[in-house]
Amino acid sequence: MANRPGGELAKRPLHFFWLADCSGSMSVEGKIQSLNTAISDAIPHMRQVASENPNAEVLVRALSFSSGAQWHVAQPTPIESFVWQTLVARREGATDLGYALSMLAGQLKMPPMPQRALPPVAVLVSDGYPTDDFATGLAALMSEPWGKKAVRVAVAIGQDADTSVLERFIGNAEIKAVRANNPEQLTRFIRWASTAVLKSASAPASQALPAAASVPVPPLPVDPGPDADADVW
Amino acid sequence: MSLPPQGSPPRVWRTLQCRVQGANHAVCQDWCEIRGDGTNSVVAAVADGHGGRKYFRSDQGARIVVEVALAAAQHGLGEGRCTREWVEALPQDIAIRWRSQVNAHAEGHPFTAEEERLLAGIPAEVERLVPYGTTLLLAVLEPGFLACVQLGDGDILALTDDDAIVRPIPIDPSLIANETHSLASFHEDRQAAEGGPVLRHEPWRLARVAFHDAGPVAAPKLLLLASDGYGNSFREPVGLERAATDYAAAISSRGIPAVGVEMEGWLRETTDGGSGDDVSVLLVFDGALASPAGPGASGEGSAGPGAKGEAAAGRPEVQG
């Protein structure tokens, strides 16, 4: 058989971002430990979702924010080889979410994002409220076409988390931030964010413009059992 | 760029097409057709139905738009209207015909209760059209004249005689994340005279056209039209450009029937290793491109010049 016409083939990249609050309040009541456990537990399930969508190349990164923000995992890492590195919360650390969003916006410019990519997924996890210029950071993100098209979901940890800020990040009136009040809920919501949402973004149908959202977000998980009602945070 | 010698006879166009269902899809949403194989006047169209829950008849919408687009193009050619003004009016002509046929189809095939539920939230004015949502690529080649119409995603590439790749219609950088303009697109007219904003179905305002009546693009060596599943399968944009060049080389070295036979396998390999989407590729090329010594040069194994026939080589519709 003659060689196939055209250049190198490749799956469509799907960039997945964890945005993790590592402020001082995350260092108490086991919150950062629970977040680390929840994300680590989700990885095999993300791999399963990725294997079911062989034409999507899931590439994972993570941003942490407290006083300032930094790439916790800077290189887009194939989920097949992704290993979660433990996050550490900074005692006395602030919550510079705005700065984290501006850093995310930088990675969603074209380039480096290719036009053929699938909609990226950004999962924000926070237990508080921003202490920097959140509006500017959000505006930077939403000024990027890929920032607008990204599937954005948010998990609030505990009662002190400002869900109105998280929902401004989400930017879709039909999608609410979920609130985890104990480690079991956090694990469940993190798994939903990293699997159901990932699955939906992996094989999206075309959407005729104007589209409310490029990817329909699947419904939230239902809390099971009485133990899930025990509020820790 | 070099031009064909003045006074040279108009090109006799040959054609190949293939359509492959993507592994991710239960139903192929693409549709395509070429008319005029073996003549010097060809019309070619490919449409990509959106798929997805609320676009449950988009495969039908794709078939309808290809039919009406080709009919509109052939009608204009038959009346000798190869002008820029005619080309610029084509999107509206096609969209209105499409809307009429879609409404007729919906009338004859009412939505089920389940389908109605999927349309919750869609404005009543466009509720019948959305399920049939589709894109469209159209090319019209006459002697010394190339016209293209594009509504939504997909690619049209022209390979000139000196092997330059030209996009008659540039890439639209706003079409990312699987979002596209559509025959079903609508907008709010806030300037309406009275009664508040009015919903308007005028998708032609989103269409882009190209008109070439001079220069190398007006008579390309090869023209490639493809649904977006094809271009999305290559790691880099240059990979799609290389496909146009490679197809021309393959036709030249191996002949038309051989390339037609291989196309299904090539497209299957492309979608499986790339996007996973439905893939349609249409080729319109100078018949002189085929190897003089090969089986396809004079139409062996195919319909001869002047006769109708995409049956020239390969299978015009191949579903994976």
What does this structure look like?
The complex is a heterodimer of chains A (233) and B (320). Chain A is α/β, with parallel strands linked by helices and 233 residues long. Chain A contains 6 helices and 7 strands, in the order E-H-E-E-H-E-H-H-E-H-E-H-E. Helices cover 29% and strands 21% of the residues of chain B. In chain B, the strands form 3 sheets. Chain B has a 5-stranded antiparallel β-sheet with strand order 1-13-12-6-7. The N and C termini of chain B lie far apart (40 Å). Chain B is α+β, with helices and mostly antiparallel strands and 320 residues long. The interface between A and B is large, with 37 and 55 residues. Strand 7 of chain A pairs parallel with strand 8 (179-180) of chain B.
Indicate the radius of gyration of chain A in whole angstroms: 17 Å
Report the uncertain regions of chain A: none
| Amount of beta strand of chain A | 15-25%
Tell me about the largest β-sheet of chain B: 5 strands, antiparallel
Question: Count the strands of chain A?
Answer: 7
Total of DSSP H or I helical runs spanning 4+ residues of chain A:
6
The rough form of chain A would be described as globular
